[in-house]
Amino acid sequence: MAEPLPSLSSLRAFEAAARHLSMTRAAEELHVTAGAISLQVRELEANLGLALFERHPRRLELTAAGQDYAATLRSAFRLIRQATDTVRAHARPDIVTLSCTTGFAVHWLMPRLEAFQAAHPAIDLRFGTTARLVDFRLDGVALAVRHGLGAYPGLISEKLAEDDLIVVASPACATRLGPDPSAGRLAGETLIHDAGRNDWRLWLEAENALDVDWRRGPVIAPDSNGAIEMARAGLGFTLVRESFAAKDLAEKRLVAPFRRSITSRFAYYLVYPPDALDRASVKTVRDWLRAEADRS
User: Which member of 6, 27, 72, 270 has the lowest number of beta carbons within 10 Å of its beta carbon?
Assistant: First the structure.
C-alpha cells in the first residue's frame, strides 16, 4: 500500500521557501507567518526523513535532495495551475469584443444578433461602440468594423457592407409624393440630415433637382440613429446607408420612394490583427459576419 502523501500546505510552503530561499518571503507570498512556514517545512522534512535545507545563521541553502524535490514540485504546481485554468475556462463564457460605431451596431448587427446567439450560445459577443480607432490589445478588442477605404497598415481588412445612400421615409410620408415621383416633389418636404447637409446636395444634384433647397431641415448628430427614428415617425425624408435600412424596408416601417442611390468610395470593413483568428471563437464570429454580409 502506498504511503500517504505529505500535506498540500507543507508542499506549498516548501516550494515557496525554495524559490525565495527565505521563510519570510515565502510567508509574505502565502499570507501566513514565517513561523508557520518554518513549521510546515520541518514537518515535511520529518515526513520524508531527510533535510531539504541547510540552515545557516542568515541564509537558507537547498540540499541536493531539496533542489530535486523543489524542481519536481514546481513542475507539478504548474500542471495543476494549467489544469485549473482549463477547467475554469470551460465554466466561463467565451467573450469576443467587437468594436464598431453605434449606428452599425443598431442597424446592421442588432437585427442579426438573436440568430447568432441561438447558433453559438457558448460565445458571449459584446459590442464596444465608438467612432474612434481602438488599440486591439490594450482595449481588449478582438475585431473591429471601420468605415473608410479599407487600408489599415498591419491589420487584415475585409469589406462587409457598401455605403450607398438611399432616400427613405415612412409609408405615410412617401404616399404624399405619389407613384414613381421625381426628386422635385421634395421641394415642400422636410429633409432630415444625419451629420451634415452635403449628402442631400449630392443626391439632389444627381437627380437634377436644383430647385430643392438641400440646406433645409434639421441636422441630427452624431450618427444616423436619430435621423432614421425621425423618418420612421413620419417627420420627413432622410438619406441612409442602404445596409442600415434593410430590416426597416423589409418590415415596411420605411420605404424608398426613389430609385437613385449615391455610391460612395467608402465602405464598412471588418478589421483585425493577423493573429486574431487563432482563437476559435473569434474565427467563428468573423465567419458569421462575412456570411451575413454576403447574404445582405
Answer: 72
